[in-house]
Every structure is written in C-alpha cells, then in structure tokens.
Design brief:
The chain has 373 residues and is of the alpha/beta class. Helix content is 46%, strand content 16%. It is globular and about 70 Å long.
Length: 373
C-alpha cells in the first residue's frame, strides 16, 4: 500500500492566494521526503476556496524540486476545455516531468464553473467529457491531414500542414501510448465506474462519500471487468480519505468539535455549494435570522459527513480504523490522504503526514499483506 495526496485544494477564501499556494507546495515537498508516491490536484475556475484553475501549471512548479513524486490532475474538467488544449498541455507536462503524469479527467462538477462556461447542465458536460477523451487520445497519435468531429468540439488540420518541417505534428507525451488516464468516482454504480472499468482508467474513490459507497465502486468495477474478461488488479485502485493523525485522541476531538475548524469549514463548503441559492437567501442582508456557523453545519449535515468521511485520532486510533477499513474493502494500491487547509503554521498537518508515513502506514500495509486482503 502506497501513500498519496489529494488537493482540491480547499482553503479559507480570506487567505492570500500566494500563501495557500505556498502551503500546498510545502506539503507536497514534505510528503515526497516521507515516501509519498503521488499528488493529485483539482481544477476550478470560479471559486477562491478551491483556488487552482490550472493544475498542470501549479504542478509544473514542483517538477524540478522532486524526483520520484508522480503528478495527477484531479481532475481536468473536459466540459470546459477544448481537447486540443488538454492534449497539448498534458503532453508537454509529461515531457517536462520525465513521464510522471497521470491525467485525471471529468466533466466538471462545480456548479458555478458550469454557469461561467455556459454549460450549466451536468448531463451535457458528461457527454462532452466522453467525446473529449476519445479526441484527446486521437490527438496524441494522429498527424495531418486529419479531421475530428464531435458534438461539442472539432479539430481539423487538412489544409495548412508541412510534414518535412514539422507543421501538422502535435505535441506527443513521453509515456507511450499515452499517460495513464484516471477518473474520480462518487457513485457506486454510475456511468463513471463503467467507463473506468471498460477503458482501464485508474479508479479513484472520492473522499467525500461513505465507505460503503467506496466498497460498492470496487464491486461494480470488478464485476464489469470480470464480465469483459479483463484483468482485475487491485493495485491500481486509489482510495481517498480525510485523515488527521494527532498526538492524542483528545486533540482530534477538539478539531472535530470546532464548528468552524478545518473539517467543519471543509464539509460545510462541500455541502453548501450544492445549495447556494438557498444559502445566499438566509445569509444575505435583510434575512430575519442569519444562522451561526454551528446552525449552518446542522442544516447541511456536516456532523454526518464527519462520521462517514473522516478518520482522525492518535496513531493507534487511526491505525485501528484503517485496518478495519482494509478488512471491509480488501486490498487497494494507494491510500490517498486529502490535503486540508492549515489551521496553524502547518505543524499539525505536516506532523500528521509524518505519523501517517512512519507509524500508521507501515502497520496497515503489513496487515494488508498478512491477511491477503
């Protein structure tokens, strides 16, 4: 069992942009020193809270400060980006990084991004994303003359090309036939699981769904692979969880008890962006009674999300809970810990990574091997 990181990233909107970018970079560099093998970074355009609109640009700043860390987009939103741009930027990053790219793709889940790009309907974005994946792969392999036609995008080079001087040849990734493709999974049995299974993408179980949903995702993936006669390799499976390893259980309890602590803010935001019109109405000027943070958490079911999605406590407690999770899910390749907003100077979260890498992870991996999970 390897260790990885996932950053939406999600930060307090009042924090200076440069500060949060620096905190995330420092966390990733620290994680590589501890033996973490990969980092995934999301893409969002219309929120100061999830504040990386260009994950490949952000990750490119880390290429020459790392040697073993692999870099994943979590995810590039194909409902908003032309496939020519995605294919070219991904190929360039793969070349610059020495073949360390994993290209995570998806339709784009943030509602405000959908409005911003004029594609508010999720079903439309899903169709566009499916179309884009095929076009991106074609663009990595084809040379002019060609024409690719789709519902949302077209790409054509049938007139203006000059092969002897390279005109008409597009950027190629270093990894052949192309970098691994990945997709985040939320539903246990939706179209995303089927696509991941059928096309041999990397399955990434999201951190904001219950363990039972995560288990259901693998069961569906495994069933589809078996039906198609495709190999089933548990080592490709990434399981994301919100993990905080503290010195004592009481310290963890204090973090979880704070309605506006790191976890409180994180899950309030996740739940709230799905209900923004109503929340604007009750928080705006003239509202008869603006709810407190604690009341807002209650309305959005934040405590239930803690129960489903957070693994927090001392090293002994977190180890016990992760072993229980392994016994339920079976083996998986990489445990991906979510990078959360620093609520101090970073000591708590960097220390958590230290304990996860040195005290917790080895014990859980040994249990996985010993039980043959």
């Amino acid at each position: 069992m390897k260790l990885g990181l996932f950053f939406m990233p999600l930060h307090r909107p009042e924090k200076p942009w440069a500060q949060t970018l620096d905190e995330d970079r420092r966390t990733i560099l620290h994680a590589e020193q501890l033996g973490f093998t990969e980092t995934w970074v999301g893409e969002h355009f219309s929120t100061k809270t999830e504040q990386v609109p260009a994950p490949l640009m952000f990750l490119a700043t880390l290429i020459h400060q790392t040697t073993t860390m692999r870099f994943g987009t979590g995810v590039v939103n194909l409902g908003h980006r032309h496939p020519v741009v995605v294919a070219a930027e991904a190929a360039l990053f793969d070349q610059l990084s020495g073949g360390r790219l994993m290209l995570g793709v998806g339709p784009g889940g943030l509602i405000s991004d959908g409005e911003l790009f004029g594609r508010p309907d999720m079903a439309d974005r899903v169709r566009i994303a499916v179309e884009s994946i095929d076009m991106i792969i074609d663009l990595w392999t084809q040379e002019a003359p060609f024409r690719l036609d789709g519902e949302a995008w077209t790409a054509s080079l049938s007139e203006q090309f000059w092969p002897s001087h390279g005109v008409g040849q597009l950027a190629r990734p270093l990894q052949q036939p192309h970098p691994p493709l990945a997709m985040a999974l939320a539903s246990p049995d939706g179209d995303s699981v089927r696509m991941v299974a059928e096309r041999s993408f990397i399955p990434i179980s999201a951190n904001f769904v219950s363990q039972s949903a995560v288990k259901g995702q693998w069961e569906t993936y495994r069933r589809i692979r078996d039906e198609l006669g495709l190999p089933i390799d548990r080592s490709v499976w990434r399981v994301c969880r919100n993990i905080l390893v503290t010195e004592t259980d009481s310290e963890s309890e204090e973090v979880l008890a704070d309605p506006d602590g790191t976890f409180g803010f994180y899950f309030r935001y996740l739940a709230g962006v799905r209900d923004m019109p109503r929340l604007r109405g009750i928080e705006g000027e003239g509202s008869p009674s603006i709810p407190s943070v604690a009341e807002l958490n209650d309305q959005l079911g934040v405590a239930k999300m803690f129960d489903r999605c957070v693994i927090s406590g001392s090293a002994a407690t977190v180890t016990e809970r992760l072993i229980s999770m392994v016994d339920d899910l079976g083996a998986f390749g990489t445990l991906v810990a979510v990078g959360h907003d620093w609520d101090d100077d970073g000591r708590r979260w960097l220390s958590s990574l230290d304990r996860l890498a040195t005290e917790v992870g080895p014990v859980v991996a040994q249990h996985m091997r010993a039980t043959g999970s």
